[in-house]
Amino acid sequence: MNYDEFNAFCGSLAVTSHVVQWGNSHVWKVSDKVFAIGGWEKTESPAFTFKVSDISFEILKDLPGLRPAPYLASRGMSWIQHYGAPGLPDDELKEYLLESHRIVSLGFSKKKRKALGLYADELK
User: How far apart are CA 109 and CA 54, in angstroms?
Assistant: First the structure.
């Protein structure tokens, strides 16, 4: 996946916005919360950072081409950075980006999720 494909996919998700910050990184937010970052660390290949469940973090953190996200994971947060080969196939990477969007959205109050039309089927 390149940055254009990353930006197109993240932009296709509900209630997202894009800003370039933190040294020319492509920062994607759902409402006002970050769910994915393209760039950020200097790597030879495109790098993509995203939030994962605790279980996914344990599975992904030691796979070749993946690592705990610099800065975020060192602060106890479950974020992974896809930084090199072999990493994840594009379809799996998109699944994790979508899941990051969902995880971050579920952190909003039920009232805010309902107002934004996000994951209404998970409102209880």
Answer: 21
3-state secondary structure of 65: coil
How many CB atoms sit inside 10 A of residue 34's CB?
19
pTM above threshold 0.85 = yes
Query: Is residue 85 within 8 Å of 46, Cβ to Cβ?
Result: no
Token pair 């970052």 is found at 37
Q: What is the pLDDT of residues 75-115, one digit of tens each?
A: 778 999 999 999 999 999 999 999 999 999 999 988 999 88
Name the phi and psi angles at 40, rounded to 5: 85, -65
State the Cα–Cα distance between residues 124 and 34, nearest whole angstrom: 24
All structural domains of the chain: 3-122 (3.90.1150.30)
Secondary structure (3-state) at 61? coil
Q: Which own/partner pairs from 112-120 qualify as long-range (CB within 8 Å, at least 24 positions apart)?
A: 112/31, 116/14, 116/15, 116/31, 117/14, 117/15, 118/14, 118/15, 118/30, 118/31
